[in-house]
Amino acid sequence: MALRRALSAAGRRWAQRLCSAARGDTIFAVSSGHGRCGVAVIRTSGPGSRGALQSLTGRPELPPPRILALRRIRDPATAEPLDRGLVVWFPGPRSFTGEDCAELHVHGGPAVVSGVLRALGRLPGLRPAEPGEFTRRAFRRGKLDLTAAEGLGDLIRAETEAQRRQALRQMEGELGRLYQRWSETLTQALAHLEAYIDFSEDDNVEEEVLSQGQRPAAIVSPVAGTTRDVVEVALNVGGYPLVLSDTAGLRDATDPVEQEGVSRARDRLRQADLVLAVLDAAAVPTEPAGLGAALGSLLPPATPCILVLNKADLLRGGGGALRDACARGDPLPPATLLSCKTGEGLNHLLELLARQLARLCGDPLAGSPSLTQSRHSLHLGDCAAALARYGRERRRDLGLAAERLRLARRHLGRITGHVGAEDVLDIIFRDFCVGK
User: Which tens digits make up the pLDDT trace of 85-96?
Assistant: First the structure.
């Protein structure tokens, strides 16, 4: 019974939200984050934005669109002054949501912000916005697709330069445009195929159309063999986010627990995109061939790695021979001397790591935007599977082949939020003069 009542209440709330959206309620919220700050931005969206701005400023005339204007802000119910700040008027459809919008840039003290929010809440037709509702309204009015909305969320959460660049590209529509081009190709192929099925008997469509388009770290110890579990930490290196896994050393262990640690280390080694192979600089050969053999005894061939020779502070004479070997490069991978005790070589290691990450991940400003959402990968995988079945069925059953194209296109449409049938009909009538 309790579950039924909860579901019923949830259904009523959802129905109320739909009714509110249908009535065109005006929403408001703090869009600059919460807490004490120098300036807080309070945003409204909806048909009541004009009246709200007029009521709070006490002036019937609005400032020119998209131009900041200094105004005294007061409570319409009591005429009490609340603040003196900047206001901006964004008439629809040239606004973030596509609706009439207004912004009040007020001082960020909690008393000022709460006073302005209370005043807005007392105005008829205005209500507090739900999480993400401004973006939902922008999507509903075609101001951005789902990939751009996700890019906006990623941009807000971005912690590194690479994440910021990728999210900005996605928010500005690059990923959506890429999916749209694919979708247009599938739409055209589907339109041609359906036209051939429907009209080929009347000789209105040639057969050739079928050929068109398609955590905390762990306790450390100087005693060898004491690292057992894989310890992971997230880092930002050169603007690229990475997860660094510290494992047990690779050795012939005799203790059963240490053997398990070595086994886990080898498993993680096979999964890694890049390996930092840390060797004792005082215990390795100094010539490149011997050094390469020592490394090869630990790692499988062609493993992408950086050779890190630690304990450089123990080398006699500064380790000139090893430094020469590291600088020589081939046949060795990128290599550097390091002293975890003194910090010597740490900057060079970070530079090598950043270069290798750039090579692995690519330039976030070049090429197509990367996939940042698991649902994109899911729908693209389903799209590819549908296209593979289309390729097998187009010579056996055109009806089934058309359904596979339709399914592939639907999966692309679910990524961007654009799923419809009218554009298929548009292409049929544009490419084929049916009824001529």
Answer: 999 999 989 999
| SS3 of the chain | CHHHHHHHHHHHHHHHHHHHHHHCCEEEEECCCCCCEEEEEEEEECCCHHHHHHHHHCCCCCCCCCCCEEEEEECCCCCCEEEEEEEEEECCCCCCCCCCEEEEEEEECHHHHHHHHHHHHCCCCEEECCCCHHHHHHHHCCCCCHHHHHHHHHHHHCCCHHHHHHHHHHHCCHHHHHHHHHHHHHHHHHHHHHHHHHHHHHCCCCHHHHHCCCCCCCCCCCCCCCCCCCEEEEEEECCEEEEEEECCCCCCCCCHHHHHHHHHHHHHHHHCCCEEEEEEHHHCCCCHHHHHHHHHCCCCCCCCEEEEEECHHHCHHHCHHHHHHHHHCCCCCCEEECCCCCCCCHHHHHHHHHHHHHHHHCCCCCCCCCCCCHHHHHHHHHHHHHHHHHHHHCCCCHHHHHHHHHHHHHHHHHHHCCCCCHHHHHHHHHHCCCCC
Q: What radius of gyration, in Å, describes the C-alpha atoms of the chain?
A: 31
Residues whose CB falls within 8 Å of the CB of residue 348, separated by 6 or more in sequence, listed in order? 336
Task: Please give the backbone phi and psi of residue 35, each rounded to the nearest 5 degrees, phi first.
Answer: 105, 165
In this model, does residue 368 exceed pLDDT 90?
no
Based on the domain organization, do 268 and 327 belong to the same domain? Answer: yes
In a domain, 162, yes or no: no
| Mean pLDDT of the region 304-308 | 85
188 and 305 in a common domain: no
**Interatomic CA distance for residues 178 and 416, integer angstroms:** 10
Whether pLDDT at 318 is above 70: no
Could you list the residue range(s) of the whole structural domain that residue 400 is in? 175-212+373-431
| Whole-angstrom distance, CA of residue 277 vs CA of residue 262 | 14
Domain tally, the chain: 3
User: In whole angstroms, what is the distance from residue 99 CA to residue 91 CA?
Assistant: 7
Whether residues 204 and 310 share a domain: the answer is: no
Give the dihedral sign, CA 283/285/288/294. Answer: negative
pLDDT of res. 2: 46
Write down the pTM of the prediction: 0.49
Burial of 345 (0-12, 13-18, 19+ CB in 10 A): buried
Is the same domain home to 335 and 251?
yes
- Domain finish residue from 132, 164, 193: 132
